[in-house]
Description:
Strand order of the largest sheet: 1-6-5-2-3-4
Radius of gyration: 22 Å
Structural class: alpha+beta
Distance between the termini: 61 Å
Amino acid sequence: MQTxxxxxxxxxxxxxxxxxxxACTGYGPSYGTQAVGSTGSAAYSTYGTVTNVQYxxxxxxxxxxxxxxxxxxxxxxxxxxxxxxxxxxxxxxTAIGAVAGALVGEAIQQNTSGVARSGQPFYRMTVxxxxxxxxxxxxQQSPEVAIGTxxxxxxxxxxx
Length: 160
C-alpha cells in the first residue's frame, strides 16, 4: 500500500508529464530561403533534389479524434481508480480525468501527426538526398519549388 506522500508524488509526476507533453508544439517542416551572408549550421546540412511535389486531398478526418478518445478513456479510468483507492467521489474524478486525458491525447496526436493526418488537403514534396535517402515534407500551402531544384535539408527544414 502506498503512503499519502508517495501518492502525492506520483500524482504530481503524472500531472507534470501531461502538461509537458501538451505544451509540445510541432508545426511540421517549413520551406524558405536563407539570406545571403547569414550564418547557418552547414555541418548538419544535407543536399538533394526535389523529385516530386504532389497535391494530396487529405483524409476523411475520421481519425482526427482518436487521440482525444484514447486520452479520455485512459484519463477517466486512471482517475476513477485513483479515486477508488483514496475514497474520493469517483464521478467527479472520472470526469476530470477524462477531460484532462482528452486534452493531452489531442495535443499528443496533433504534435505527432503533422499536416498529413489532419484531414485537410496538403502538398507533399519528395526530396532525393545525395546519400540516396528519400525524404518527404508536408505543407499546408504549395512550397512553390520546381521538380529538379537543388535544395538543402537541415532537420525538417528545406532551403533552396
